[in-house]
Amino acid sequence: MKFKKLITGISLLGLLMMGGCSAKKTSNESQVKHIGVLQVVQHPSLDKAYRGFKKGLKKSGYVEGKNLKIDYQNAQNSQDNLKSMSEKLVNDKPDLILGIATPAAQSVANATQNIPIVVTAVTDLKAAKLVDSNEKPGRNVTGNTDMASIKQQIELLLSIVPKAKKIGIMYNAGEVNSKVQADLAIKELKKAGITPVIKTANTTNDVQQVTEALAGKVQGIFLPTDNTFDSAASVVGKVVKEKKIPLVAGSVDQVKVGGLASIGVDFELLGEESGEMAAKILSGKAKPANMPVQKPHKVKLVVNKDMAKALGIDPNSIKAPK
Predict the structure, then answer these.
(1) Which residues of 30-68 are buried (b: 16+ CB within 10 A; e: fewer)?
(2) DSSP state of 294
(3) Is the pLDDT of residue 312 over 90?
(4) How does residue 299 score in pLDDT terms, banded at 50, 70 and 90?
(5) Cβ pair 98, 120 in contact under 8 A
(6) What's the whole-number mean pLDDT along residues 194-198?
(7) Ordered DSSP codes for 51-111
(8) CA–CA gap between residue 186 and residue 145 (Å, rounded)
(9) DSSP assignment of 230-274, as one string?
(10) Can you name the CATH fold of 33-146+267-297?
(11) What is the rounded distance in angstroms from the CA atom of residue 309 to the CA atom of residue 212?
């Protein structure tokens, strides 16, 4: 009997220890936050935004592989991929989803009204129907905008080509963020007495033809932040260099590859700010519905000196409008 009691006691102790280990494991797992990420396409600006996002989370104490798990998905500019990847991320029930660029943001927002969503590299969250207002989003979505001053961009371009009579604008009309910027640019050009010439491309395969067609009709080009054109930045750069047409871009990274100048956003810093916003949501300090959309805290003038020289322009003559 004593022997049986001893065996029973040891068995119970073992079960208790196993239960304790299991409880400890469950507790540790519950401390790990899970984030789903959907990026519309791969190009330098959006890649930097994602890198900055992780940096912002790390600054706030969330470290991937330690207390943070990230499921990253890249749709490669495919609508079908956006839909299926959004559904996958939502079905996995993460603590938060990041949408990088407007199409990705809209796709994940359409897939869930419950999981908190932070978006980055989106020009106008309200125009994209992601929030009720920028001051009080009112839904499960918030984030930050990549829109620099279009007025400044147009003033910069006109200071480079002061005798211009026609300025081109090219973008993908299917991207809401691009159309918002294009409309603002048209308004500024008309104010200045300049005729805007508009060309659009639906895919990266159309970019070269559109750029060549536009370059033959205008004295300068404004290119808003646009995922289609940014994905073919080197193609754009080659054409405007050959045609000797100054191009001012909304994206700093577009300038580095194939534009002349920009007063644009640092996308890594933009992503970092969205990471800090996400950290506040994960920690329970804030909810997207009450978290105002943030504007870029820093913009900068970037000049492609090699492009300037190729166009016969002194790069030191290009200054940011006051």
Answers:
(1) eeebbbbbbbbbebbbbbbbbebbbbbbbebebeeeeeb
(2) B
(3) yes
(4) confident
(5) yes
(6) 98
(7) HHHHHHHHHTT--BTTTEEEEEEE-TT-HHHHHHHHHHHHHT--SEEEEESHHHHHHHHHH
(8) 20
(9) HTTHHHHHHHHHHHT--EEESBHHHHHHH-SEEEEE-HHHHHHHH
(10) Rossmann fold (3.40.50)
(11) 21
Cα torsion through 292, 298, 303, 304, rounded to 10? -70
| pLDDT at residue 29, as a whole number | 47
Q: Distance of CA 110 to CAs 99, 114, 125, 171, Å?
A: 12, 11, 14, 24
| Cα dihedral sign, 180-184-190-194 | negative
Pairing relation of β-strands 261-265 and 299-303? antiparallel
Residue-range domain boundaries for the chain? 33-146+267-297, 150-265+300-317
Mean pLDDT of 131-147: 95
Q: Please compute Rg for the chain using Cα positions.
A: 25
CB 221 within 8 A of CB 197: no
> With bands split at pLDDT 50, 70 and 90, how would you rate the model's confidence at 30?
low
Instruction: Convert 265-294 to b/e letters by CB count within 10 Å (16 or more is b).
Output: bbbbbbbbbbbbbbbbbbeeebebeebebb
Whether pLDDT at 167 is above 60: yes
Q: Kindly list the strands in the beta sheet with 117-122, ordered across the sheet, starting from the edge strand earlier in the chain.
A: 68-74, 33-39, 96-100, 117-122, 141-145
Q: Beginning with the edge strand found earlier in the chain, give each strand of the sheet holding 195-200 in spatial order.
A: 195-200, 166-171, 220-223, 247-249, 261-265, 299-303
Query: 169, exposed or middle or buried, with CB in 10 Å at 0-12, 13-18, 19+?
Result: buried
Q: Does domain 150-265+300-317 have CATH number 3.30.1330.10?
A: no
User: At a CB cut-off of 8 Å and minimum separation 6, what does 191 contact?
Assistant: none
Angle at 229 between CA 225 and CA 234, to 5 degrees: 115
What pLDDT was estimated at residue 307? Answer: 97
What pLDDT does 266 receive?
Answer: 86
Under 8 Å CB-to-CB from 123, ≥6 apart: which residues?
Answer: 102, 145, 146, 147, 176, 177, 178, 180, 181, 224, 225
